[in-house]
Amino acid sequence: MAKAHFIYDTSNKNADLYYATKFMAGDPFIFFQFKGKKYMVMNDLEVDRAKKEAKVDHVLSLTHFRKIAEKRSSYPSKYDLMHEIFQDLGVKHLIMPQESSFLLVDEMRQRGYLVEAGPAPFFQERYQKTKEERKYIEQSQKVVFSTIRMVRDVLQKSRIKGNRLVYKGKALSSEAVRSMIDVYLMEKGFIAQETIVSCGKDSVDPHSVGHGLLKPHSSIIVDIFPKSGKTQYYGDATRTFCRGKAPDGLKRMYATVKKGQEMGLGMVKAGISGKKIHDAITTFFTNQGFPTREQKGRMVGFFHGTGHSIGLEVHEEPARINKSDYRLRAGNVFSVEPGLYYPAIGGVRIEDLVYITKGGCEILSGYPKKLEII
Amino acid sequence: MAKAHFIYDTSNKNADLYYATKFMAGDPFIFFQFKGKKYMVMNDLEVDRAKKEAKVDHVLSLTHFRKIAEKRSSYPSKYDLMHEIFQDLGVKHLIMPQESSFLLVDEMRQRGYLVEAGPAPFFQERYQKTKEERKYIEQSQKVVFSTIRMVRDVLQKSRIKGNRLVYKGKALSSEAVRSMIDVYLMEKGFIAQETIVSCGKDSVDPHSVGHGLLKPHSSIIVDIFPKSGKTQYYGDATRTFCRGKAPDGLKRMYATVKKGQEMGLGMVKAGISGKKIHDAITTFFTNQGFPTREQKGRMVGFFHGTGHSIGLEVHEEPARINKSDYRLRAGNVFSVEPGLYYPAIGGVRIEDLVYITKGGCEILSGYPKKLEII
After folding, report:
1. How many domains are there within chain B?
2. Residues A306, A336: one domain?
């Protein structure tokens, strides 16, 4: 039976749909792939732009199918239109993304279609980047590192005054640095959200974006993952800084995370299991005196994954370097970002992106790893 | 049978989920409302933050349910965990958003649940704004207008040089002005995407964001709809400018759109049908010599809706002021944004936001409507 891969969504939210069409739209449209050809069905507002911009074989007019459907019933629903389109081509079997609306799927099943869930992501080839995609990610990553350099300069120029960092006459806060980062990136055409600038207590919670004044002699985690407005590809990097001399405990922890990250960078290559890498780093940390465990009802140590696949989404699930058994493949782009978090010391995380090759990896751009800014 | 309203999604993408919880998260979590109480079930990374920030009655630990589920099977899936949670409370009937993953729904149905689609949006009360929501939207709208003022200043300061506008020694383009807008907004903590600065041919296509050099004596549509990073609520406004003297046809069209918009602002009130307003404006335009029709295979005239509901999403579907029969209610916030588009003249659109009251509307903030910048 003739199967079609079918997506109905907005391409500005659905990375698979953008991947398949290279067409950015805020309103939902019909896309399907059938007998090796890609189709889009567009309303009158978008049909011209789609013909110009979309990387598909056929752009069909929704109005055309509406006119046909209106011969059958006076108010055809969007499901009736989809039925009209698929009937026309003889499609009876639909493979749809797992996250497709169940109302849509129920409606298609009621019209006699066999609907099957595709894998996640829908286009598994997204995990293995083309040359062009690798280039786009590296371009984004270069902008991330230039942003981190800017942040380092700001911290460098700030003066230590008691328990505060004073920059241009004002006490520097997580919020202020986050705003500098997001504005800097916007000027370069990048959209950053949930940028992390966390210090002290906040830095111990890897999910906190950070709030309040930054302190000297304390770890400051800067984790930036913006999307290029032009290519739509993400960059993602983390550096941990300390303005002024760092306490010995923090210095030792930083050196340990740095070695752990180098261990990860040294292990990644096509064919290896992510679990092996993650376990090796966790064990190394434990052996260095930084165990992962529950302490007073919260986790301490290294309690997030080592890395995630990245591209058109910042986290391309479910490919991870963590306790799961994802096996790395050539062409994958992964973050390698171990961290350690203890309330008494602070948080440290160091993150780079790697392009996986047969024998190892290529690190996509780079920036020094140095804790203290003195 | 005990029904629960159930969402499993990320709150940074699902406005209903954010609306229900006021908790922003990039990873999916379980939310449900049962017997008048709101529940969230969070993993270890997020459970502390959720307890602090989320506006719900109970924050439960996912690990707690995982431990129970692991007594039944060694690798419980996320669906097994959901089953564990609902079993515990005696839930058998789930009302879920229409856009919920069909894989999730299939899995729940296989476990014996009756799954029913909720309305869209899932929380219909989103259409009727609270005082706080009204305030948030107005705050965002004020920032939008201050941005439009900035753009007007830039156009004012630019010099006309042949067919170009020269600003600070460089020919001004759609891209440059868009970047100024997006950076200006980011400095104020707002995220803008798909900002429209379209001129000439581009301005005739309401969906084009605009490309290339801006021209004098030609319509320039500036449509800005950013989201506040703080409140998450959108603003949305459009003004059309012309740097230098405008051709008579454009002037006449601008005056007509302005009158049409005033007509719309005068008609909106609780109880009226959106179709009535939309039809009145369309007819007015036709009577003024600006008919809506197909011309050489493309639409000209007024071929988009008059307005859309706005709040946590820029378009809160399906509430629209257009050919559909949505009946306005007190507390709705709608855009009123008629436009006219003819290849020979250009495009004109004027947009404000209104808060619907029993007897009419309150316009949320404002900015003059004047075409020419001379």
Report:
1. 2
2. yes
